Amino acid sequence: MCEKLKRSTWKVQLAVLQSMKAYFQGLLLLEKGREDSNALSQILTETCAALTYPLENKSYSSVRTEALSVVDLIVKRTGESEQWDCVSVKSREQLQRSLSTLQSDSRPDLRDKAQELRRHIQSQP
To answer: Are 51 and 98 in contact (CB under 8 A)?
Structure first.
C-alpha cells in the first residue's frame, strides 16, 4: 500500500488510503495487550513516510482528507493501546512537517484538523 501512495493517480491513492484506514482499524497489534513493538514500529515507520505524499497533495482535497483521517486513526489507536512510543521520532517529525503544509490549505476543516493533529503529536512524550 505504501508504494502505491507514491506513484499512483489520485483515484488509486484514495482507494489505498481507504484500505489503509480499514487495515489500521482492524490491526490486532494496536490492541492493548497485543504488543509486538518491533513489528508495529516497522509498519508505522513505512506508513508515516508514505503518508507524506497524500498529505502534501496540492491538487486533490479528497486525497488530503483521507490521509488526515488515516493519521487521526493512527494517533488515536496508538494512544488507546499505549503504544505511541512505537512511532519513531523521525516518523513524528515527518508527520508534523506534512501536517504543517496543510496550514495554508484552502479548506478550513482540513487546516483545523491538521493543526489539531500536529499539536497532539507535539504534546506526546
So the answer is: yes
- Tens digits of per-residue pLDDT, 78-96? 999 999 999 999 999 999 9
CA atoms lying within 13 Å on the CB side of residue 8 = 18
Distance from the first to the final alpha carbon of the chain:
29
C-alpha 92/C-alpha 71 separation (Å) is: 11
DSSP letter for each residue of 70-109: HHHHHHHHHHHTT-GGGS-HHHHHHHHHHHHHGGG-S-HH
Dist. CA 2–CA 51, nearest whole Å: 8
Whether 64 contacts 102, CB under 8 Å: yes
* Residue whose C-alpha is closest to residue 41's, from 75, 91, 94: 91
At how many degrees (to 10) do helices 89-101 and 108-123 cross?
160
Indicate the pTM of the whole model: 0.93
